[in-house]
Structure formats: structure tokens, C-alpha cells
Write a structure and sequence with these properties.
By secondary structure, the protein is α/β, with parallel strands linked by helices. The protein has 19 helices and eleven strands. It binds pyridoxal-5'-phosphate.
């Protein structure tokens, strides 16, 4: 590694730890509430071992307090009931979800954002923040679509257009993308005044079809279901296509489903490509999907909520090749741009695209104004763009590259540890920085391939229960954390198995910590009756099947 990269690395680690002596801008109240945050965060995932039901008792009074109280008294509540019982998502041992550590400067900057209290819905309440947000949208547009400077100079501050929509997260971003796609497909023409005006029934009559559909892989985020519901496309018409052994959309199955839709006179409204699936972090074949969308003439949306920032990495950018052909792309800033919760974006290749959902009102969002609210689903919105801008400016392209590269490297390293450990089985190898695995003792791994499918399935049911129990006990112990999900696994006849899911996004997570995660899981298996029961059940099952085999 070159010297400058090393220097960069050091700064990066430093910005993810809270400074020893509190930054004066952090203020005394924060210090009083959180004490030594860094130390506190790094030791435990949850400080108190109380159950959720127990914690609910602290929040069960439904009456608005009659009498005012002192702020100092209220901060006592914050400290004892909220901070002390919060999940330490920034802890380096918290490697189970997409929520991770924040660079320390996000905290003082969030305070400034709150103090300014700008409302991005209109320029009248956000004079500097509207241009700032437009600049952030252009920067992300540039990351994806790499248009030349004259393009950005032409469109960045154009009053009738927007290069994208800033919103609270990937869910709204995906919904906005398909809202635009829907309104463009059902645009006004001739007598027909468009779906936005006349509704779905008239739109279908106009198109001469029986329904609209969205095509996506089984790994699509659940927000797609919400979008299909909200846009009156219907959840049945969110067509989920099978995936291959690498959790990527199966192009043959896609063509087949498309033909079935045509037979039923249902019109595909949009095709989804995923750049970093939520469960396994895999990337769909975006070039092939772009070709197919072009062939059938439908909107191509890429959900890069998680994987988008991979574009910062010279080493790994090619994994997302084809993303620049998407009509729209979702990126969540509160994931791999390390911005606090509540910051997502959807970018559109065509600066005219958002016109399809344009809305005007008389007192604001007037024609010709630069109000961003005329092109967003949400109304009043905070100045979160400041925090994205801060990350892009302070961490920079090279800093994000380093974070992405480190995460992918660490995930590969974790996969190695799992592969080398006799009692674990890697279920999905990491393409980006997410992987899944399960506890599967060596003796059983040796037997499994020789068992018939039915017996394998029975064994898997017990391993599922084992994984579930271990995950729950580990979470409650609060030292390290992985999440769990269920995935189809081709090794076992494509049936679903329960797996641990690990997301390696916190730069403070070390290989030692990953070893601890595995060691803790092994310790739980050997010590906890709940886990032992499942292993014994498997032994009984196998012994029984051997007996019946010899009897025959
Ligand atoms: C997280 C995620 C979303 C949803 O984003 P929210 O910010 O939680 O609304 C959508 N798609 C993918 C691939 C994601 O990882």
C-alpha cells in the first residue's frame, strides 16, 4: 500500500471514532448524556439485558404530561431510558444490519442542520440549501451517468427540471422511480389526459391492456411490494423471478415470465436490477437487464440503495457495469455513504423524467420556481443534503473507495474464516460486503451429501431451528450481533434454509472481532440446551434412518 493510502486509512479510522476530548461543538449536554461514547459503544451491542416487553413498560403512559418539566429532568429520562437501552449500531461487533458507525462530524453538523431548520420543499424556506441539494443530486448523477460538464451546467439548477429526488430513504426512492415510470407509460396523449389525471382504469383502457407489471428478482427489497400496492399496480403484478446459484436474476426465467405476461395482455411497466441485494449483497447482470429492457421497451430501474457507492472504487466499480444504462437509480445515503438515517436519493438519466410527477400549487411550487417540492413525493423535508455533501467533501471519492474496498476485503476474509472452520458452512459467498452462513458441525457436513433429499430436508429443519436459537441468544447476550434470514440454497434441492447474515460496513470491525463472532456462536451451541436439543434430534433422526435401512 502506498504511503498516501496509508495516511488516508488512518484518517478514516479516526473519523469513525469519537474524539477523546469532546469537540467543543458536541456540547456539554451530549457529554453528560452519553459519557464516553466510544468506550460504551465498543463494548456491548445493548447495554441492559432487559426484554423489549420490559422496556415497553417505560413507555406505556398515553397521557400528555399536564405540567411542564425542566430540560435537565428530561435529559435524565433520555440518558436512562433511551441512551442506556438503545442498540449500539455503531459497535464494531454489530455486523448484522446495514446500519453502522457514523463519522464523528455528522453529529455537530446535524445540530447545525437542526438549528437552521430549513425546509427543502421550497426556496422561500431554504435559499442556500436548495442549490446545495441540487448540487448533491448532480454529484450522485455524475457518479452514475458520467455526463460531461456542460450537461451539468445546463441542468443542475434548471428551474423546470431536477436530476433526481432527495428523500427519506430507498423505499421512497424506489416508489418515486416506479411512479415516474408509470406516469410516463400512461402519459397524456390525444383525448387521454394521463394516469395522474384520470386514474388507472382509464389508463388501462387507453393502453388496451389488462394490467401493469413490475419484473424483479426474488431478492428484490420488500419496498417494491409497497410501491406496487401504492401505485395501484397490485402486489400480484410484482412478478418475482427466480435467481441463479449466485442470487442473481435468472435471465431465462425472466424471458419466460415476460412471455406469460404478454399472453395475459399485461404490460410490463418496469424492470428492476439490483446492485447489492439486501440479503446477500449480490449484483444482477445489469448489462443484460438493460438490453432486455430496451428490447421490450420498458423503464429500467436499478436499486443500488446498498451497492451504489461501489462506483467510488476503481477496483470494484466494474461489478456494476450497465448501471449507467438505467433510466433511474436508487442510492441510500444512510447506508454506504455513512450519513445518519433518513437520506435517500433517486437519480434519473433523463433530466425531463421527473416532469411526469410534477405538481404545482399556488402558494408555493409555482411554475418556473426552483422549488424541489414540485418533483418529490414528500412535502416538507429537512436539509439532510448538507450531511451527504459533508461526507462527499470530507471523505471524498478516495475515502469512500477505501471504505468500500476495506468492506469487501473484510467480507472475503470472513468468508475464509467460515470456510476454514470445520463447523460452519458458507451459504452465500460475498460479492460485495454481505455474506450468509450457518452453523453446521463437521460430522454432519460429511454425512449430508450422502443423505436422500427428504432426510436432508428434515435435517435442515433442525439446523434452521438451531440457527434461529443461536442468533437470538447471541443478540440477547449483546456482545456481537449478526442478523438472520431464509434463503433458497441449490445445494439442498433449492429449498429455503435459515442462515446468519453478516454485513461488513463498519470500518472499525476487525478480523479479531469476526473470529469472536464465530467463537461466540460455537460457545452458544455447546452450552445452550436449546441448541443441543436440535443436534440431538438430528442424531436420533439419522440413527433411525440407518436402522430402517438395515431392516430393509
Ligand atoms: C435498504 C434497501 C432499501 C430500502 O431502503 P430504506 O432506506 O430502508 O427505505 C431498498 N432496496 C435495497 C436494495 C436496500 O438495501
Amino acid at each position: 500500500m502506498t504511503e498516501t493510502a496509508l495516511a488516508n486509512l488512518k484518517t478514516l479510522y479516526r473519523i469513525f471514532t469519537v474524539p477523546e476530548a469532546p469537540d467543543s461543538t458536541l456540547g456539554k449536554i451530549d457529554q453528560a448524556i452519553t459519557g464516553n461514547v466510544a468506550e460504551f459503544l465498543q463494548k456491548h451491542i445493548v447495554a441492559l439485558e432487559r426484554s423489549l416487553e420490559d422496556i415497553e413498560k417505560d413507555f406505556s403512559c398515553a397521557a400528555v404530561p399536564e405540567d411542564p418539566t425542566f430540560v435537565s429532568e428530561y435529559t435524565k429520562f433520555v440518558k436512562e431510558k433511551l441512551v442506556a437501552q438503545s442498540v449500539h449500531t455503531a459497535a464494531p461487533g454489530f455486523v448484522g444490519h446495514m446500519t453502522s458507525a457514523l463519522p464523528y462530524f455528522m453529529l455537530p453538523l446535524s445540530r447545525i442542520m437542526t438549528a437552521l431548520n430549513q425546509n427543502l420543499v421550497k426556496v422561500e424556506t431554504s435559499k442556500a440549501f436548495t442549490p446545495l441539494e441540487r448540487q448533491v443530486l448532480a454529484m450522485l448523477h455524475n457518479l452514475i451517468y458520467r455526463q460531461d460538464n456542460s450537461f451539468y451546467q445546463r441542468w443542475i439548477h434548471d428551474s423546470d427540471h431536477a436530476l433526481g429526488a432527495f428523500c427519506s430513504g430507498g423505499t421512497i426512492a424506489n416508489t418515486t422511480a416506479f411512479w415516474v415510470a408509470r406516469n410516463r407509460l400512461c402519459a397524456p396523449s390525444g383525448e387521454f389526459r394521463g394516469i395522474a389525471q384520470e386514474g388507472l382504469f382509464k389508463a388501462l383502457q387507453h393502453l388496451g391492456c389488462e394490467g401493469l407489471a413490475i419484473l424483479a428478482s426474488r431478492r428484490a427489497h420488500y419496498s417494491l411490494g409497497k410501491a406496487a400496492d401504492l401505485l395501484a399496480i397490485g402486489r400480484d403484478n410484482l412478478v418475482l423471478i427466480d435467481t441463479d446459484d449466485h442470487n442473481r436474476i435468472d435471465m431465462r426465467a425472466l424471458r419466460e415470465e415476460y412471455r406469460k405476461l404478454c399472453d395475459r395482455n399485461i404490460r410490463p411497466l418496469g424492470l428492476l436490477g439490483i446492485a447489492g441485494t439486501t440479503e446477500t449483497g449480490h449484483v444482477d447482470p445489469l448489462e443484460q437487464l438493460a438490453d432486455f429492457a430496451e428490447e421490450i421497451g420498458c423503464h429500467f430501474h436499478v436499486d443500488a440503495a446498498w451497492g451504489g457507492p461501489t462506483l467510488f472504487s476503481d477496483t470494484h466499480r466494474s461489478l456494476l457495469a450497465g448501471i449507467e444504462r438505467a433510466d433511474s437509480v436508487t442510492i441510500d445515503a444512510h447506508k454506504q455513504l455513512y450519513v445518519p438515517m433518513g437520506a435517500g436519493m433517486v437519480l434519473f438519466k433523463d433530466p425531463h423524467a421527473l416532469t411526469a410527477i410534477e405538481h404545482h400549487a399556488n402558494y408555493i411550487l409555482r411554475h418556473g420556481s426552483k422549488d424541489l417540492g414540485s418533483h418529490t413525493l414528500e412535502g416538507s423535508r429537512p436539509g439532510k443534503a448538507l450531511l451527504v455533501h459533508a461526507g462527499l467533501s470530507i471523505i471524498g471519492r478516495k475515502g469512500y473507495e477505501l471504505l468500500i474496498d476495506l468492506g469487501i476485503e473484510k467480507a472475503r476474509c470472513f468468508a475464509e474464516l467460515i470456510n476454514q472452520h470445520p463447523d460452519f458452512e458458507l451459504i452465500s459467498a460475498p460479492e460485495l460486503n454481505i455474506l450468509t452462513y450457518r452453523y453446521h458441525p463437521a460430522w454432519l457436513q460429511a454425512l449430508m451429501p450422502g443423505l436422500d433429499l427428504e432426510l436432508q430436508q428434515q435435517v435442515n429443519r433442525h439446523l434452521d431451528a438451531l440457527t434461529q436459537a443461536v442468533q437470538k441468544i447471541q443478540r440477547e447476550a449483546g456482545k456481537t450481533f449478526v442478523s438472520r434470514t431464509r434463503l433458497r440454497c441449490s445445494r439442498y434441492g433449492s429449498e429455503q434454509v435459515t442462515v446468519f447474515r453478516s454485513v461488513l460496513a463498519n470500518p472499525l470491525t476487525t478480523v479479531d472481532i469476526l473470529n469472536t463472532v464465530l467463537a461466540e456462536q460455537c460457545a452458544i451451541v455447546s452450552a445452550e440446551p436449546e441448541a443441543q436439543e436440535q443436534l440431538q434430534a438430528i442424531e436420533t433422526l439419522l440413527a433411525g434412518s440407518k436402522d430402517s435401512a438395515t431392516a430393509q
